[in-house]
TrEMBL record:
Entry's Gene Ontology molecular function annotations: DNA binding
Pfam families from the UniProt entry: HTH_17 (PF12728)
UniProt keyword annotations, A-Z: DNA-binding
Organism of this sequence: Flavobacterium sediminis
Keyword DNA-binding: yes
Start and end residues of each Helix-turn-helix domain: 41-89
InterPro entries per the UniProt record, alphabetical: DNA-bd_dom_put_sf (IPR009061), HTH_17 (IPR041657)
Protein's name according to its UniProt entry: DNA-binding protein
Length: 103
């Protein structure tokens, strides 16, 4: 067994640093906890499966502002209520300038 002696002031300093880190972490997670508790969020795959669309169509919906999304850590999330509202309104179809519809 190895015993390491540390000055009390150094130990107290480390304790304070750890407490500060814990407080920062709690504050950061508290900020987003309420957002995720209020609403169910879906990722790209879940939205594509729910709407029966391709990832490219989903990207088109995002680009055109048809389906709002939020980005967290380089990943997109969609509110379930927004997806349901779009489904109830009827999914917009991809059309080109000639009026032809394609999927």
């Amino acid at each position: 067994m190895e015993v390491i002696a540390v000055q009390k002031s150094a130990l107290d300093g480390m304790k304070n640093d750890i407490k500060e880190l814990l407080e920062l972490t709690e504050n950061a997670t508290h900020k987003y906890t309420s957002i995720f508790k209020e609403e169910q969020w879906l990722d790209n795959q879940e939205v594509c499966l729910m709407m029966n669309i391709t990832k490219r169509t989903l990207q088109s919906y995002k680009d055109k502002g048809i389906l709002p999304y939020s980005k967290l850590n380089r990943k997109n999330y969609y509110k379930l209520s927004d997806v349901q509202a779009l489904l109830e309104a009827g999914q917009p179809y991809n059309t080109n300038d000639n009026g032809f519809t394609y999927e």
